Amino acid sequence: MTSIGTGYDLSVSTYSPDGRVFQVEYAQKAVDNSGTAIGLRVKDGVVLAVEKIKHSRLLVPQSNKRIMTAGRHVGIAAAGWMSDTRHLVKRARDEAHQYHSIYNAEIPAKIIAERMGMYVQAYTLYSSVRPFGVSTILGCVDKDGPQLYMVEPSGQFVGYRGCAAGKGKQAAKTEIEKLKLEELTVRDAAKEAARIIYAAHDETKDKLFELELSWICAESGMLHAHVPQDVLAEAIQFAERSLDEDDGDDDDDEMEDEEL
């Protein structure tokens, strides 16, 4: 932080002279230091994937999940503080339940994203609270078809065809932009999502990680669910094979450069 910001980061309700809210930027930094999370909206559903960093070999596999269900048809993938994630997921569940109890219908993706964005933004207004250090990716299939939104720590929410958050978001976005999402099926998207997570993973900093995959599609009954084990295993195998092929191509290029 530059000297112009000194003293302006003590309260979330204080702007710096150049119009910045430093505590919101700090919250975004917490997201950028987290494992990568991505969402893909394809022609027949939505796929969510998360790179869950394992800080110890003693952790129980498939515990402390970073992909959760907010409504029967709504899934949330998170990058950032897990404690903040659980709070926001609980809020999303309350919103989904309240909407269903009033209108006797499942909450549309745009409405739950808007309500979550407004709730997160409220925590950037008062000096007695702090912003949420998490970006949430909401995947949903409603009457308008597959939907994908991301809610950022500032409260901004935007609809996407494909999005990424976390430390590998730039590499992930580059790979997502290469995909023809409108032509992919959810099974193809699951493989591509795994490949992108493996490609964005930085082995020099975090050697151990666990891939989480979920989807909302016809195979899951249009409900949010983690992918079956056979689909997960197939996606991991595809990702590892693609990674090995890329490494092999890089080695061949180096050998050609040495010969020249």
- The count of strands amounts to 10
Class inferred from helices and paired strands: alpha+beta
Q: Give the N-terminus to C-terminus distance in angstroms.
A: 46 Å
Which of globular, elongated, flat, extended, rod-shaped describes the shape?
Answer: globular
Number of discrete domains:
1
CATH superfamily: Aminohydrolase, N-terminal nucleophile (Ntn) domain
Report on the structure:
Keywords: Hydrolase, Proteasome. Its EC number is 3.4.25.1. This is Proteasome subunit alpha type-7. The protein is of the alpha+beta class. It has one domain (3-249): 4-Layer Sandwich (Glutamine Phosphoribosylpyrophosphate, subunit 1, domain 1), CATH 3.60.20.10. Helices cover 39% and strands 23% of the residues. The chain contains six helices and ten strands, in the order αββββααββββααββα. It has helices at 22-32, 82-103, 109-122, 169-177, 186-200, 229-259; strands at 37-42, 45-53, 67-71, 74-80, 134-142, 145-151, 157-159, 162-165, 209-217, 225-226. The strands form two sheets. It has a five-stranded antiparallel β-sheet, covered by helices on one side. A five-stranded antiparallel β-sheet has the order 3-4-5-6-7. Strand 9 (209-217) and strand 10 form a beta hairpin. The model has no long low-confidence stretch (mean pLDDT 90).
